[in-house]
Specification:
The protein is α+β, with helices and mostly antiparallel strands. 44% of the residues lie in helices and 13% in strands. The longest helix is centred in the middle third of the chain and has 32 residues, at 261-292. The protein is built from 22 helices and 16 strands.
């Protein structure tokens, strides 16, 4: 192809104003430039030798991602992250050092959960841990009261990282690391700290009273805990641990050399900041879309009801609509706007543009995901598009591409699916303020607004729901032995009163068919259901029992007479 010119066209906006717009209006920033200049545009630095070229056409992305890696220097384009992840982070390495670290890091994050191979069994165990943590966090919600969905997702993903990567399940070190990491990431995500990434004069350490000084202090405290944990694990012998830290400690390169303590620290810090924060943002968006578009939630529940075993991570991970919801979540608002910048080392031609050495290339994920030619109505959330066709890695690239694609991609998708399935099998989540929202800047990433509030409601009681759904069906009438008895108009009665100022009593009763004694005795058992296999989880009443009895020290009883109706009696202490 004959070269058109050296660089695509681009705006002449002053650099400072451009940075302000990029910080305050990140989506408008790229949308406006793409509208004015097309699939490729150049942003100039202080001189013509400093150019950043954005590409979003699939052909351009393919040329970038499949080019010989020796054409580019990637670590140099991401030096802004050095203060946090260190010199040995995979993100900042190039050449043979990058290839070595990638080969050492990748295996622990992969494995087919449907197979009995060690890697598959390990990934299955990770999946069970993820589901358990999602249950624990969601059961801490106060039913009917607003909660911060992002805070909950951060708590889930942080616990997953600490358990799966660090092997920490309880104890003082877990709590210390958890508090420090939460404080560090909240600080990095604050508006002023986010601005420091784009305006270097804010990156000044004035001690504990300055944001940068506080950040440095928190990072130092985290480093001390991580190095202590590494030393402790190296001293252990004969421990059959399956956490990722242990696997990395035993990993060897082609020469038989292990990773140093410094390399391990930097990679663990990278996993902490990149793996935890980004997955929490993606999950927050997923729950937003499920709540904002009820039909999406309904389709997910219908699909979840087809599971023979609702706790099987392998079966959950293969659900097509659940997978499509996660993919569409990552398409419409990718957490990272661009893949890692590539700095050209030797002249290269991309889409007819001859780019000289020193040019920085930005493969623009957001613009690639909003191409009308690839994704019709790109601003609409439509998971079905991922069921209708398969997109190439140059059309759908939420985790970047080429030899720089995120090594934790499969694990992140796995975690997203399991958390969504676990929580949506137990709760209906609703937005407190149902309105359209756009991403805001959070550090170097894009995220949902920090204050997004939701309300969780346990799903309908299986047995009661079944009776109301089938009140006039043939199968229901056959349960009544006397053919002369007709079904009444079903009613649901709810009564609330205070008993001796000690308890609030809630009675929920119907005048339906009732249930037999053997079913009544088992009705609070986990996964017990009267529905056919694949048509119900059997979790509704067991979760209700946990909330009322175990969490609030209350009483939950069921009274029923076949043919006359069923009554649930809930007693909750006024003060505990």
């Amino acid at each position: 192809m004959t070269a058109i010119n050296s660089f695509p066209d681009g705006p002449s906006m002053p650099i400072f104003l451009r940075r302000v717009k990029f910080f305050l209006q990140p989506l408008r920033y790229v949308e406006d430039f793409a509208k004015a200049y097309g699939d490729a545009f150049t942003l100039w630095g202080p001189s013509k030798e400093n150019a950043l070229v954005h590409f979003s056409h699939p052909q351009a992305l393919e040329q970038i991602f499949t080019a010989d890696p020796s054409h580019f220097e990637v670590g140099r384009g991401n030096r802004i992250l050095r203060f946090l992840v260190g010199d040995y982070s995979l993100i900042l390495l190039d050449g043979e050092r990058h290839q070595r670290q990638r080969q050492l890091l990748a295996p622990p994050f992969h494995g087919d959960v449907s197979r009995q191979a060690p890697s598959g069994l390990r990934m299955r165990a990770y999946g069970e841990t993820i589901c358990k943590i999602a249950q624990q966090v969601s059961h801490e919600w106060q039913i009917g009261k607003p909660f911060n969905i992002r805070a909950s997702m951060q708590e889930i993903t942080l616990r997953v990282i600490l358990r799966v990567v660090f092997g920490l399940d309880e104890g003082q070190r877990l709590e210390e690391l958890r508090k420090l990491i939460t404080s560090l990431l909240e600080l990095i995500g604050s508006p002023l700290m986010s601005a420091s990434f784009f305006f270097s004069f804010l990156q000044t350490d004035f001690g504990a009273w300055s944001l940068w000084g506080r950040m440095q202090k928190l990072r130092q405290q985290i480093d001390e805990l991580i190095y202590a944990l590494i030393r402790e694990r190296r001293a252990e012998s004969g421990q059959n641990r399956q956490d990722i830290l242990n696997l990395l400690l035993s990993a060897r390169d082609e020469t038989g050399k292990p990773m140093s303590d410094e390399e391990l620290r930097d990679e663990l810090m990278t996993l902490l900041t990149a793996g935890h924060e980004t997955t929490a943002s993606a999950l927050t968006w997923a729950f937003y879309w499920v709540a904002y578009l009820p039909e999406v939630g309904e389709k997910l529940l219908t699909e979840l009801d087809t599971l023979d075993d609702p706790q099987d991570p392998s079966a959950i991970a293969k659900l097509p609509y659940l997978t499509a919801v996660c993919q569409e979540t990552l398409r419409i608002y990718p957490i990272i706007m661009s893949a890692f910048f590539r700095v050209v080392k030797s002249p290269i031609e991309i889409m007819g543009y001859k780019l000289p050495a020193g040019t920085a290339i930005a493969p623009n994920i957001y613009l690639a995901h909003h191409r009308e030619q690839v994704y019709p109505q790109p601003q609409q959330f439509k998971p079905e598009r991922f069921l209708e066709r398969q997109f190439s890695p140059y059309e759908f690239l939420p985790f970047g591409g080429g030899n720089r694609r995120c090594i934790g991609m499969a694990f992140a998708m796995y975690e997203m699916k399991l958390v969504l399935a676990t929580i949506l099998s137990s709760f209906q989540v609703s937005l407190v303020h149902k309105r359209s929202v756009r991403p805001v800047r959070r550090g170097l990433t894009l995220a949902a607004p920090a204050g997004m509030q939701m309300v969780a409601t346990p799903l309908a009681i299986d047995a009661l729901e079944e009776k109301f759904e089938q009140r006039y069906s043939k199968s229901s009438k056959e349960q009544i032995q006397d053919p002369n008895v007709s079904l009444p108009d079903l009613t649901l009665r709810i009564c609330t009163e205070i008993l001796n100022t000690d308890y609030v009593e809630i009675r929920i009763a119907d005048n339906g068919l009732g249930i037999t004694e053997d079913i009544r005795q088992r009705i609070f058992d986990p996964f017990f259901t009267t529905k056919p296999v694949g048509q119900g989880t059997g979790l509704g009443l067991s979760i209700s029992y946990q909330i009322v009895v175990e969490k609030h020290s209350g009483i939950l009883e069921c009274v029923s007479t076949p043919g006359k109706g069923t009554e649930f009696i809930i007693k909750i202490p006024v003060s505990i």
